[in-house]
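Form 7-S
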Amino acid sequence: MVEWITVFCIFSKDGNWNGGLKSAESWGRTISAEWLIIDTTRIPCGYVTCPVKVIDESEHACELFAGHTHGVAKDDVTIAPGVGWALFEIKQ
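Output:
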């Protein structure tokens, strides 16, 4: 993947730096670019999770999930990303 969209993919899902490549071999030819080149297998997901402790009458171990969670069909040919969040209780 190349061009401006790669600025959103400079870190892997583990927080490692994906950037640095400005030229790469593809289909037997060298591609050079002004923007970073990111291998499509290294594109991070568009969401994050984190542990949350909910305390009401008792304590509940939970996981918060937030980010690009779904797609929305705008018409017969257009899909837009949907942003949302959810809180899940983790059963022990």
